[in-house]
């Protein structure tokens, strides 16, 4: 089987992008304590403090975007949109998606450090 050198460059770009995102997660985790963020979001939802939900989700999304974590940023933006559109019943489900994405990134980061 011959190595397709045309694809090699693209593969290297993807691996480089993944490595960058993983290292960015380390910086993000230093900036934010993920578990505290999700605990505060859950508490704000329970208290129906939707302004706090919006502000926290926006901060998380901005930080994720700054570090190149597009999916986490997009999902955080969906939480912000749900608050703005008064779709409060969607918040717990959206928060679960954001948490899953965050946990997946943390897991990849942890594996890369082994």
Explained architecture:
The longest helix has 27 residues, at 5-31. The chain has five helices and no strands. Residues 1-12 have low confidence and may be disordered. The protein has 114 residues and is mostly helical.
Helix content: over 70%
Mean pLDDT: 79
How many helices? The count is: 5
> In what range is the share of β-strand residues?
under 5%
Looking at the overall shape, the CATH architecture is Up-down Bundle
Low-confidence stretches: 1-12
Overall number of structural domains: 1
Rounded to the nearest angstrom, the radius of gyration is 17 Å
For the biggest sheet, the summary is: none
Oligomer: single chain
Stated plainly, the CATH topology is called: Four Helix Bundle (Hemerythrin (Met), subunit A)
Q: Gap between N and C termini, in Å?
A: 32 Å
State the secondary-structure class: mainly alpha
**What global shape is seen?**
globular
CATH superfamily: HPT domain
SSE topology string = HHHHH
The number of E-state strands comes to 0
CATH class: Mainly Alpha
